[in-house]
């Protein structure tokens, strides 16, 4: 039997298809404010949003600053002055309405639940939005507990995010914990910092040109049960 007892799943682009949901939500929010939705405007937003998230992960800004700034800065680049916090709340409403999941996510959750693992979420996001998206996909029933950065007060890869989970569940043996996620800079780096094993979900087969090393790398979620969990005994 595998040595792992606790599986911490990232949500966005690991179990939930954030890319697809984001595309829908961005088109809705752009349309709401009269901005054309095309490759150029999307690229502009993603550049602004990406820089803010990088600062957040590095601990240089607070989540509230990111949420109030990203759409304010984006619409400013398009010649509009808007209340960034209100626009962000509207966007997250559109996002929360979606029920988009990654291929194989439900089968994986059912499998690891049947195998008796303690299934946890470890996600950087807004509590209300993430919980609603899990409900929309009927995924909530698979989780023993949800750990969401907004509610914890810490963002991955901050070690305090993981320490919160360890303390909450009184996990003493970190070798029993496996982190599963798509982000090297968030999920895998965070796992490395606290000394737990990790699975990098890399469906696009990207080249890892960083110094961040996952324990495992998979291109399909099914590999987690077929290869990773069966291999670690």
From TrEMBL:
SUPFAM superfamilies: HAD-like (SSF56784). The lineage of its organism: Bacteria, Bacillati, Bacillota, Bacilli, Lactobacillales. This is Noncanonical pyrimidine nucleotidase, YjjG family. Pfam families: Hydrolase. InterPro entries: HAD-like_sf, HAD-SF_hydro_IA, HAD-SF_hydro_IA_YjjG/PynA, HAD_sf, PGP-like_dom2, Pyrimidine_5'-ntase_YjjG. GO terms for molecular function: 5'-nucleotidase activity.
